[in-house]
């Protein structure tokens, strides 16, 4: 009865929240869409893999620009209207981009789509926060889960449209009574054979479809003269700790965000391509399936992690995740280049291991430090920069030597493990409190990160 009553009393806010979730779903889809189709775009654009892989940081660069302007835009305009326009822009430019055959045009369109993604990324979080006020924590967790689901489903959408791996030549027999002969026909795929643009169009269509009810929400709010404030919910407050303690904690969290975003993006975007180009020589559809498994572990492990915080210490769970990361790195480097079982186990353990790390780090630090509006960009911008730069660098290294991709993952993983362990010890020793890192169930759930990770 309570659930039914809650739904009836809040049906408008729930409907509005689900529209935001679908918007965030499309953002997650856009993040992995390029990684799943890079090999086919390489054929479509008639460019080498290293060059095509730069489309990932180009879109991310637009994401950074959009994030920088999102705060100002969100204060001056109705957020439902802005999200409606962002979905339209994303749909138009994301869906059109792969239809071009020149790299510069594709990059330009993806950059514009990235700007819309950056604005929507910030406004989705603030809109959910304003909609549910002090009850927003669980709704924000659902929001970021929708991003993971989008990242997970997109490779599945791409698979039917990918060109299957095959030998570049096919031998056929042309037999006649007088002159039996064997003719070799070149079967190398051409740009006309590429169908990956249809996957882009599907995601674009979903994004544009969501824009319609968001427009309705805007006109409804305008007609009812909704008084929801677009100002910051939590004004900047003075920290109770010495500045150097606060700064060191923020720097550690920013590094963790940078490494988490980077590791997740490198594996999620390039893992499928590595499995095809490495000594494993997996077919592209199996490679995309590998990426799907990684995103499944990365997205849905939190459905296990969060309930477990009710029955056991969060510190123990985090130490277990650290162990998963260590084993994942040891299995991947360098064995995943030659043994399929190693790449499956390694990517699975890494997906599970890094899934709650940034969220837990954010929550751990927010217990001691007030993470104000001025501090948040310092934490999140390095993460987005890592998400942009590291896949491009890893792709360049992989183009020259495939196994270097695994060592790159290993380096990021080791740095993340060390930094995360340092933050745990730092919070325990420097921010001394009666209960240390151990918290009650209610407190643990209330301080989980609102980051999509």
TrEMBL record:
Pfam families: MFS_1
SUPFAM superfamilies assigned to the protein according to its UniProt record, in alphabetical order: MFS general substrate transporter (SSF103473)
Regions that span the bilayer: 12-34, 54-73, 80-97, 103-128, 140-162, 198-219, 246-267, 287-305, 317-337, 343-365, 405-427
Record-linked InterPro entries: MFS, MFS_trans_sf
Keywords attached to this entry: Membrane, Transmembrane, Transmembrane helix
GO molecular function per UniProt: transmembrane transporter activity
Protein name according to UniProt: Major facilitator superfamily (MFS) profile domain-containing protein
Species name: Tetranychus urticae
Gene: 107363804
